[in-house]
């Protein structure tokens, strides 16, 4: 990994907690700032609340968790899709509303349109499974412009849609030699660290166990 993209440990969390940030927070930032066209903000000053909604598909995933929190810090109202078991977690992370992803696609889309009052301008697919859903959803929102979509997967199956801008966050992160990507990642570090230190970005839930022995990961997988 290129040294300049290494995230220093925030002062208020343990080293083990800090280890949960890394690629998850970086991927969320790449999708939000590069893909969803959200301007970089000063983490020392709260962003003004916007009368716009952002959608995080797969909000209970690691990238989804970080995306929800960073979009909230950027001033957006956030709706996420997840299982009903994760509704309380997403609410604790700042999501304004959640929709059960297990419902039929028409039901999910209907709920999203109702919750956002059709004022949905940005969508982040953190689980790379929703190209079809976003195509149908954004087709319902042709009158809303501009609209942005980011996925952690491949865009090849996304229907051609001139009425929104799409972006893929896919590939190696932090390797030496990719100067543009690494420069972008470096610009996110201050935001990530400051949001963690001010309690606006929580590290992923984790189970710390073992004493550093080589067998510890094997035992952890048995749980």
UniProtKB/TrEMBL annotation:
Stored InterPro entries: ADH-like_C, NAD(P)-bd_dom_sf, Trans-enoyl_RdTase-like
Record Gene3D superfamilies: Medium-chain alcohol dehydrogenases, catalytic domain (3.90.180.10), NAD(P)-binding Rossmann-like Domain (3.40.50.720)
Alphabetized UniProt keyword annotations: Oxidoreductase
Molecular function terms, GO-annotated: oxidoreductase activity, acting on NAD(P)H
Pfam family, any one: ADH_zinc_N
Domain Alcohol dehydrogenase-like C-terminal: 63-130
Official protein name in the record: NAD(P)-binding protein
Natural source organism: Glonium stellatum
């Amino acid at each position: 990994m290129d040294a300049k993209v290494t995230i220093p440990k925030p002062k208020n969390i343990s080293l083990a907690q800090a280890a949960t940030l890394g690629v998850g927070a970086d991927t969320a930032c790449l999708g939000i700032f590069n893909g969803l066209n959200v301007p970089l903000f000063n983490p020392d000053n709260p962003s003004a609340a916007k009368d716009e909604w952002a959608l995080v598909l797969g909000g209970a995933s690691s990238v989804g968790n970080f995306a929800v929190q960073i979009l909230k810090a950027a001033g957006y109202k956030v709706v996420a899709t997840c299982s009903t078991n994760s509704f309380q977690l997403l609410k604790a992370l700042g999501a304004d509303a959640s929709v059960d992803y297990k419902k039929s696609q028409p039901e999910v889309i209907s709920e999203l349109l109702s919750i956002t009052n059709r004022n949905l301008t940005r969508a982040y697919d953190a689980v790379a499974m929703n190209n079809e859903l976003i195509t149908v959803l954004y087709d319902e929102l042709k009158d809303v412009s501009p609209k942005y979509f980011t996925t952690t997967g491949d865009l090849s199956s996304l229907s051609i849609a001139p009425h929104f801008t799409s972006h893929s966050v896919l590939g190696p992160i932090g390797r030496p030699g990719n100067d543009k990507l690494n420069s972008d990642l470096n610009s996110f570090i201050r935001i990530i660290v400051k949001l963690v230190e001010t309690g606006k970005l929580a590290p992923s839930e984790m189970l710390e166990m073992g004493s550093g022995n080589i067998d510890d990961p094997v035992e952890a997988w048995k749980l």
